[in-house]
Design brief:
This protein is mostly helical and about 400 residues long. The protein has 17 helices and no strands.
C-alpha cells in the first residue's frame, strides 16, 4: 500500500495540509472571541461558513474537474485556499474572518473531492488501500492542525491563518512539479449528476448517515474548546491526541475490524459507541478531565467511521468516483455546517450540556438510517471484480426507475 507513485504522495501531502485547516482554528476560537469581542455562536460561524460553502461547492467540483482536468482543479483549489487563509489572518472583525473562511471552504471543496478521486484512481492496489492512504492523510492533517494552531496561536490568533497560507503555497509548488498533467474526463459532468447519483438508495443512505454522524463530529470539534476553557496550546495538545487516535484507527484498526466482522456491522456498532461518548460528554461537561479524555477517546471512533463510510461510498455508488465523492461530500458537510452554529447557540442560551445531547441524538439517528438502508449495500465486502458486476446491476436498476 505504501509503495505509490510520486504523484499520489504529492496529492496526499497536499491533503494533509488541507485537512490541517479543519482543526487548526480549534485552539484559537477563544482567543478570537476575546480579542474581537465575539460570542461563542459568532465564532462558531468560522466552521459554519467554511463547511456550508464547502458542501454546496462540492456539487460543482465534478463540473470543473471534467472540463479543466483534475490537476488544474487541484491547483485552483489550493490557490483559493492560499488567498482565503491569508486574508482571514488580516481580518479586523469576526465577520470578516467568517467571510474569508467561506472562500477557504470553496478552495477546499475543489481540492478535497478531486484529491479523493485522484488518489483512488492513481494509487496502486485496491480501492480500500487507496482510501486508507487518503484517510491517513486526513488523520495526520487533523492531528497536526490543532498542534500547529495551538503553537502559532500562543503568538497571535492570526498566526495559524498565515501558517496555512504558507503551507498551502508549498503544497501548490509540490503539486505543480510532482503531479503529471491529467487529461479531462471523456464525458463532461453536469450539476445534475450528483443528484442523480443520490437516487441510488445505498449511496443516499450512507450520505444521510454521514450527515448525521458529522453533526456529532463537528459539535465535538467546534464547541468543546469553550467548556474546556484552556489556553490555545493546551487545547491544541488535547485535539492533537484526538487526531492521533483518529489517524491510528483509520489506518490500522478499521481494516482489521472490517476484515473480521464486515463493514456494516462495524459501522453500526462504532456509531453507537460514538453516540455514547457524546452522551458522556453531555453528562460530565463541567469536568474538564473527563471532557478532555472523551475528546481523545472519540478520535478512536471517528477514525474507524471516517474510513469505512468513505470506502462504502466509493464501492457502493454505481457512478464515477468523482461524482460519488461530490454527492456524498455535499450531504455530509451539510451536517458539519449546521452543528457548530447550533451548538454555540444552545450552549449560550440554554446550557453547555445540551449541544452534546443533540450531537448524540443525531449520531443515533444515523445508526437508524444505516440499518434501514443496509439491504441496498449488499456485497459491499465482496472482491472488487464482484463489486463491478454489482454496480452494473445497480446502474441498470437505477435507469429502470
Amino acid at each position: 500500500m505504501w509503495r505509490q507513485p510520486k504523484a499520489v504522495w504529492a496529492v496526499a501531502f497536499a491533503c494533509v495540509v488541507a485537512f490541517m485547516g479543519i482543526g487548526l482554528v480549534d485552539p484559537i476560537l477563544k482567543p478570537i472571541a476575546e480579542n474581537l469581542d465575539a460570542s461563542p455562536s459568532q465564532v462558531s460561524l468560522l466552521f459554519t461558513s467554511y463547511m456550508a460553502v464547502m458542501g454546496v461547492a462540492m456539487l460543482i467540483t465534478g463540473v470543473v474537474s471534467s472540463r479543466i482536468g483534475p490537476k488544474r482543479t487541484l491547483l485552483l483549489g489550493l490557490a483559493v485556499i492560499i488567498v482565503g487563509a491569508g486574508l482571514a489572518g488580516m481580518s479586523a472583525t469576526v465577520m470578516e474572518i467568517v467571510g474569508w473562511r467561506a472562500l477557504w471552504g470553496l478552495g477546499n471543496a475543489l481540492f478535497i473531492a478531486t484529491a479523493l478521486a485522484a488518489i483512488v484512481n492513481s494509487a496502486k492496489g485496491s480501492v480500500a488501500q487507496a482510501i486508507i492512504l487518503y484517510e491517513a492523510a486526513l488523520g495526520l492533517g487533523i492531528a497536526v492542525g490543532p498542534l500547529v494552531g495551538g503553537a502559532l496561536g500562543t503568538i497571535s490568533w492570526r498566526g495559524p491563518f498565515f501558517g496555512v497560507s504558507a503551507l498551502m503555497a508549498f503544497a501548490f509548488v509540490v503539486t505543480v512539479f510532482l503531479l503529471p498533467p491529467t487529461p479531462r474526463a471523456e464525458r463532461a459532468t453536469t450539476l445534475a449528476d450528483p443528484f442523480r447519483a443520490l437516487r441510488h438508495r445505498g449511496l443516499f443512505g450512507v450520505a444521510v448517515t454521514a450527515l448525521l454522524y458529522n453533526f456529532g463530529f463537528f459539535t465535538l470539534l467546534a464547541f468543546t474548546p469553550f467548556p474546556l476553557d484552556m489556553s490555545a496550546s493546551e487545547i491544541g495538545f488535547i485535539f492533537f491526541g484526538w487526531g492521533v487516535a483518529l489517524a491510528f484507527t483509520s489506518v490500522v484498526v478499521a481494516p482489521r475490524l472490517q476484515r473480521r466482522f464486515g463493514t456494516l456491522p462495524v459501522l453500526l456498532v462504532n456509531l453507537v459507541v460514538m453516540a455514547a461518548t457524546l452522551a458522556v460528554m453531555a453528562i460530565f461537561t463541567d469536568d474538564k478531565v473527563v471532557l478532555a479524555a472523551s475528546v481523545v477517546v472519540a478520535g478512536l471512533w471517528c477514525g474507524i467511521t471516517n474510513t469505512l463510510i468513505t470506502e462504502t461510498v466509493m464501492k457502493a455508488a454505481p457512478v464515477e468516483r468523482g461524482v460519488a465523492s461530490a454527492a456524498y461530500s455535499f450531504m455530509r458537510f451539510g451536517g458539519a455546517a449546521v452543528a457548530p452554529w447550533l451548538a454555540g447557540v444552545l450552549g449560550e442560551r440554554i446550557n453547555v450540556h445540551l449541544p452534546y445531547w443533540v450531537g448524540a441524538a443525531a449520531v443515533l439517528a444515523g445508526v437508524g438510517v444505516l440499518a434501514l438502508t443496509r439491504s441496498h449495500l449488499r456485497g459491499i465486502d465482496a472482491e472488487e471484480s464482484e463489486l463491478e458486476q454489482l454496480k452494473d446491476e445497480a446502474t441498470a436498476l437505477t435507469v429502470g426507475d
